[in-house]
Specification:
Blueprint: H1 5-55, H2 65-78, H3 97-109, H4 117-141, H5 147-155, H6 171-185, H7 190-202, H8 212-223, H9 227-251, H10 255-259, H11 270-280, H12 283-295, H13 306-324, H14 336-341, H15 343-359, H16 361-391, H17 396-409, E1 415-417, H18 420-423, H19 434-442, H20 449-456, E2 462-465, E3 471-472, E4 475-476, H21 480-489, E5 490-496, E6 499-504, H22 511-519, E7 523-524
Parallel strand pairs: 1-2
Antiparallel strand pairs: 2-6, 3-4, 5-6, 5-7
Helix pairs in contact: 1-5, 1-15, 1-16, 2-3, 3-4, 4-5, 4-6, 4-15, 5-15, 6-7, 6-8, 7-8, 7-9, 8-9, 8-13, 12-15, 15-16, 20-21
Length: 536
């Protein structure tokens, strides 16, 4: 039966409509994919810019860097990690021993005018190695040529990590060995199991709470009924965890006391819930949840599969982070291990999302608009301001010059500082960590009498504080006892580089210092009324 002219015309219209629809679908799908890639690429670039600028900074990247650096330098000079707490700066070195050993390595090889530079290179290397292992895990679980690129961009653009990459902590070295343990368990080998156990135990040498790989690996091997492998894994883990700690304790008798100085801790819940919210609203979490929903009806999440191992690892990591972060000293860094662990699932989720966008025009428009306006626009502003911080007037070069000025002006002065970086300007600081002092006082574990007495006696040439009152999770950096001791013998004089400098009430010996401060443009403090004085 032949087609009529009307049927032929209708068929031509339908064919043209289908071709147009397919072309629009293809273009919109590509735009959606490009938008998602651009979002993660912008985050990755901002992370890279922040690390490049921070690497050369003469000041702390995050609060507490100087506190850790002090003990690193002390270890380099004396070979001792855990100091005599009856001597200044009085407060314990609370981190695991290999944190100080690791960050002291660059200083033993080369010298630098910037004491932060070498340790920061180590911290950056640990972060990059974490990303490489995440990429390796993702590639072993997901087929496809673009998997490594998605994993790289996602792991390198997690927002809550950006300002922590160069901080002198034990997080990324510990996470590195935990992730390596999980990757080794993907290999069906007896020796891989033993090496995985050694890595899982070694992670605790950087942070004692990094037991995630030990727990998840043992449970997974039990779920597979690999009894001998589980025994090998556990024995290797105990050897490289408790075994090494015992060896170090034999050399550093003060180790356990100082590492446990903050136990059981001060519980704080309002900020705790905010930190959990910040971690859970990362885009990688949302994409991982999408992948989990799509895979829930398949065998991919079986407990004895490799996906099951990774899921178990992520759940254990998040549970440990949530429990330990209740204490008031915790921050978002507690959740980094869980966030790294879900990146492979997020890669699977984004591939499903972009595939979905390629098949439906409405889906591609939804993805494009959502990412462009809800995620990409803020990311673009962040990238813009990040670039300004690298080369702008307030960038690292300008800040370093300003810090050198105040360092030169205060050279040779006996300083008491509640700002850890400024405390390092004194060769024998009386206090390195005011927050830790307040925390331990809250717990009744520290008597500040020696510090308060030295302040009231006017022993120091000047006192440095922040110009505004600072607290974290309900614990002030300067508690009332310390504040009153400073006010009894010192008064605010000027502000420079974000430091409030207090000079002695009796300034008979301060004329030279006053002249130096005036020369560098230290802004005088005028207190005609209590409302005009800095609320430090």
């Amino acid at each position: 039966m032949s087609l009529t002219s009307g049927d032929t015309h209708s068929s031509m219209i339908n064919s043209a409509y289908n071709r147009t629809t397919n072309a629009v679908r293809k273009i919109s799908g590509r735009i959606a994919t490009a938008t998602v890639v651009t979002f993660f690429l912008a985050g990755f670039l901002f992370t890279a810019i922040e690390q490049i600028s921070g690497l050369f900074s003469l000041t702390d990247i995050g609060y507490g860097d100087s506190y850790i650096l002090y003990d690193v330098l002390h270890f380099q000079k004396t070979g001792e990690i855990y100091r005599d707490l009856s001597l200044p700066p009085y407060l314990p070195a609370q981190y695991s021993p290999l944190v100080y050993v690791l960050y002291s390595i660059p200083g033993r090889i080369i010298s630098s005018s910037n004491p932060f530079f070498g340790p920061r290179l180590v911290a950056l290397a640990a972060f990059l190695l974490c990303i490489l292992i995440v990429i390796s895990i993702a590639r072993s679980l997901i087929p496809g040529r673009s998997v490594w690129l998605w994993a790289l961009l996602m792991a390198g653009s997690i927002g809550v990590m950006r300002s922590w990459v160069l901080q002198l902590r034990g997080d990324f070295p510990g996470i590195l060995f935990d992730l390596l343990a999980i990757r080794l368990l993907f290999r069906n080998s007896r020796w891989a199991v033993v090496l995985a156990g050694l890595c899982a135990g070694f992670a605790t040498q950087f942070k004692i709470t990094y037991v995630t790989a030990l727990i998840a690996g043992a449970l997974w091997l039990l779920a597979r009924r690999h009894w001998k492998d589980c025994a090998r894994f556990a024995a290797a883990g105990v050897l490289s965890s408790l075994g090494i700690y015992l060896l170090l304790w034999a050399r550093e008798h003060r180790m356990l006391h100082q590492m446990m100085a903050l136990s059981p801790g001060v519980a704080e819940f309002p900020k705790w819930s905010i930190l959990i919210h910040e971690a859970l609203t990362e885009p990688v979490v949302l994409l991982a949840l999408l992948a989990a929903v799509l895979a829930i009806s398949t065998a991919a999440l079986r407990a004895d599969s490799y996906w099951g191992l990774l899921t178990l690892f992520a759940l254990v990591a998040f549970s440990i982070a949530a429990l330990t972060d209740i204490q008031a000293g915790g921050n978002t860094n507690y959740f980094y291990e869980a966030l790294f662990a879900i990146v492979p699932a997020a890669v699977l989720g984004v591939r499903r999302l972009t595939a979905w966008a390629k098949w439906r025009i409405s889906a591609s428009l939804f993805v494009t608009l959502l990412v462009a306006f809800y995620f990409l626009q803020p990311q673009a502003w962040v990238l813009y301001y990040g670039a300004r911080s690298l080369v702008g007037p307030d960038g690292v070069k300008a800040r370093n010059q300003a810090f050198r000025q105040i360092e030169q002006a205060l050279r040779g002065q006996h300083i008491f500082s509640t700002v850890p970086r400024a405390a390092l300007l004194d060769g024998e600081p009386a206090l390195m960590e005011p927050y830790l002092l307040s925390y331990m006082q809250r717990m009744g574990k520290f008597d500040p009498a020696p510090i308060l007495r030295r302040l009231r006696d006017g022993e120091f040439d000047l006192v440095i504080t922040a110009p505004t009152s600072i607290s974290w999770r309900g614990i002030p950096h300067i508690n009332s006892d310390l504040r009153h001791a400073i006010m009894a013998s010192y008064q605010p004089y000027c502000v420079d580089f974000g430091y409030l400098l207090h000079l002695p009430n009796n300034r008979r010996n301060s004329s030279t210092l006053e002249g130096r401060l005036t020369a560098i443009g230290c802004t005088p403090v005028v207190c005609n009324s209590p409302f005009e004085c800095p609320a430090w």
